[in-house]
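Weekly sync, protein design subgroup
Attendees: M.S., D.O., the rotation student, P.L. (late)

Item 1: inverse folding check
M.S. brought a backbone from last month's batch and wanted to see whether the design step gives back something sensible before we order anything. D.O. pointed out we never logged the input encoding, so this time it goes straight into the notes. Structure tokens as presented (326 positions):
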């Protein structure tokens, strides 16, 4: 089987952790390396959490690199109230056996894509600072990557970090503009699909019935997350932001409806961090415009087209997520 080679960039909080468990449990992906980034928690703690997750999954040899400790153009802001002081729902996990590597996350992205040009899929489930910095250091990076899947943004859905902005984009809008403006195939998995793809009572019971080390860990860290979302939804359920993006990088057929559009991130005023696309029907590019552009090497004068899923096969994904915890 052609396993996707995934380079993960994450601010390892609770849903990032579930995404890592999912990747580790899929036979169609190979996790090459992880880079940490600020966001849910400070970047250095995210790196420790990534190491812990890898060791839990028996992936001790997958390297973790420290990444950007602050955004490009705004102060650091973290979200311990959502993810816990430790980023893993205040579950007091033991310290990992190994520490992160000496190489930083940006250098790791540049080196691995030089060693394996055209083979790597980048999965970014935190703020896009590392990817933006990597593009600044080496604009040719875009041509060496097979695809980029970003968890972030919101088109028709309201924001979660502000009225209009999704958290990962809100944490570093300048970096997001660099990523959406580069000539590489980006899929932006936003709140339109992640907020409605949820674990509910039935699925939580299915996870409990598994009884594996990974399923028990998942339930433990999810407890805090479910408490937070219960206050929003009124019921004990939670969205699957990062896990869905992880699923889509492994199997893009979870996406059932999408738009291919230029994405611009607003960087000023109260809507800073909002992801804007032109949804007017008469402005829509041809259905195959993104693929044509990829074939032509993106020499157009127009901005790149980002794939934005608007509907996914949620039940199939959730079933696969549960199976991956066995
Ligand atoms: C995103 O923000 C973070 O809180 C989550 O880990 C996810 O990546 C959801 O908006
Ligand atoms: Ca995240």
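Designed sequence read out in the meeting:
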């Amino acid at each position: 089987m052609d396993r996707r080679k995934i380079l993960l960039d994450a601010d390892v909080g609770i849903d990032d952790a579930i995404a890592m468990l999912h990747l580790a449990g899929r036979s169609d992906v190979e996790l090459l390396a992880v880079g940490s980034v600020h966001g849910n928690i400070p970047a250095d703690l995210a790196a420790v959490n990534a190491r812990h997750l890898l060791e839990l999954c028996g992936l001790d040899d997958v390297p973790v690199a420290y990444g950007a400790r602050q955004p490009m153009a705004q102060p650091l802001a973290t979200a311990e109230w959502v993810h816990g002081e430790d980023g893993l729902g205040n579950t007091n996990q033991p310290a990992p056996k190994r520490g992160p590597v000496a190489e930083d996350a940006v250098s790791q992205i540049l080196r691995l894509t030089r060693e394996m040009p055209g083979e790597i899929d980048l999965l970014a489930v935190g703020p896009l600072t590392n990817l933006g910095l990597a593009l600044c250091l080496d604009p040719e990076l875009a041509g060496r990557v097979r695809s980029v899947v970003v968890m972030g943004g919101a088109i028709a859905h309201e924001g979660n970090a502000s009225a209009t902005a999704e958290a990962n984009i809100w944490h570093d809008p300048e970096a997001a503009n660099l990523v959406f403006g580069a000539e590489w195939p980006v899929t932006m998995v936003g709140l339109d699909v992640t907020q409605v793809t949820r674990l509910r009572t039935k699925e939580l019971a299915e996870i409990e019935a598994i009884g594996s080390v990974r399923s028990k860990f998942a339930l433990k860290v999810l407890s805090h997350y479910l408490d937070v979302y219960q206050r929003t939804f009124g019921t004990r359920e939670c969205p699957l932001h990062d896990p869905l993006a992880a699923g889509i990088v492994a199997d893009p057929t979870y996406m059932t409806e999408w738009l291919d559009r230029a994405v611009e991130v607003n960087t000023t005023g109260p809507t800073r961090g909002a992801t804007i696309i032109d949804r007017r029907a008469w402005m829509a590019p041809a259905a195959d415009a993104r693929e044509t552009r990829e074939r032509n090497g993106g020499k157009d004068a127009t901005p790149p087209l980002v794939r934005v899923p608007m509907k996914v096969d949620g039940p199939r994904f959730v079933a696969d997520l549960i199976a991956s915890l066995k």
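Discussion: The two ends are 21 Å apart (CA to CA). The chain has a mean pLDDT of 97.
Action: P.L. to compare against the previous round before Friday.
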